Amino acid sequence: MALGPQQLLELYRQMVLIRQTEERLEELFRAGEIYGSLHLCIGQEATVVGACASLRSDDYMTATYRGHGATLAKGTSLKGFMAELFGRETGCCRGRGGSMLLADLTVGNLGCSGIVGGAIPAAVGAALGARLSKSDRVAITFFGDGATNQGVFHESLNLAGLWKLPLILFCENNLYAEMTPIHKEAAVARMADRGCACNVPGVSVDGNDLEAVYDVTLQAVARARQGEGPTLIEAVTYRLAGHMFGDPETYRSKSEVAEWRSRDPLKVLGERLKERGVKEAAMEAIHREAGAALEEALTFARQSPEPEEAHCADHVYV
Questions:
Q1: This prediction's pTM
Q2: Predicted confidence (pLDDT) per residue in 259-292, tens digit
Q3: In a domain, 66, yes or no
Q4: CATH of the domain at 139
Q5: Residue 312: what pLDDT?
Q6: DSSP string spanning 256-305?
Q7: pLDDT tens digits, residue range 144-161?
């Protein structure tokens, strides 16, 4: 199902908001306003926005510690997200989760995980739950290319294939497992090819092309809802920021980053919108509106109360 210009413009709006949010978080982290560890998804916005556009709000999702974009794309409010990064009671996890452990059950986000591959089996469980309850919900789990080398990925893939669960295994292949090129870790060139061992169809897609991501995910969702089982999607993309804040990035060349920057998903979709008649003024307005929404969310977060010390363990289950 093709996306119309207005739908594409709305998804562009989401991508712009995620990009501006990530860039601002980097500034806030450097200034010492937020703490912990920071893993930015700058350059990977098309993967999560394109995939989540194919889902319903009641579908399940899990993601990685690089989960800011997935959390916002699945529907968490910007205010709730930002308050969580500030560790405030009004955050989506009431200040208990922070950057790497975001969750929001109101929109089906069962949680991001700080463990490589750690969120994958949770999505398998959610998909099994949907099957047992005779629901037509599906579950999607986002993970990186490095996670496909974890045993838990293969165990999850096997169960999903064996039981034909309504699951989309979505690999954001940004070419590096932390600081190691994936070709030095994986015996296969395409992560999508790992699916065949468990009778799970695998498809590889340009992760910087939002429409392509949307199309393949929509097909996978349709298969899952019809009881045809899981799909493994590999979206080839690139993080334009380091693995984490402070990453010296000595493992990749500036020319490589510059090459991928020329394929920035925001640029790709922006040019496509212009080709389809969307005025540049409308796109510029989206950037201004995103900036205003971000400032409003920051004000909300800064003014929100911190959790009371006596209740810090409330709602904490692990």
A1: 0.96
A2: 999 999 999 999 999 999 999 999 999 999 999 9
A3: yes
A4: 3.40.50.970
A5: 77
A6: HHHHHHTT-HHHHHHHHHHHTT--HHHHHHHHHHHHHHHHHHHHHHHHSP
A7: 999 999 999 999 999 999
113 located within any domain: yes
Task: Tell me how many domains the chain contains.
Answer: 1
Query: Is 266 within the bounds of a domain?
Result: yes
Tell me, yes or no, whether 317 lies in a domain. no
- The pLDDT score that the predictor gives to residue 147 is 97
Q: What is the pLDDT of residue 226?
A: 97
Q: Is pLDDT of 318 > 70?
A: no
* Mean model confidence pLDDT for the chain: 96
Please report the pLDDT score of residue 167 as a whole number. Answer: 98
Question: Counting every residue, how long is the chain?
Answer: 318
Domain that holds residue 162: 5-303
- What residue has token string 């922006």? 270
> DSSP assignment of the chain, as one string?
-PPPHHHHHHHHHHHHHHHHHHHHHHHHHHHTSS-S-----TT-HHHHHHHHTTS-TTSEEEEESS-HHHHHHHT--HHHHHHHHTT-TTSTTTTSSTTTS--BGGGTEEEEESSTTTTHHHHHHHHHHHHHTT----EEEEEEGGGGGSHHHHHHHHHHHHHT-SEEEEEEE-SEETTEEGGGT-SSS-GGGGGGGGT--EEEEETT-HHHHHHHHHHHHHHHHTT---EEEEEE---SS-SSTT---TTS-HHHHHHHHTT-HHHHHHHHHHHTT--HHHHHHHHHHHHHHHHHHHHHHHHSPPPPGGGTTTT---
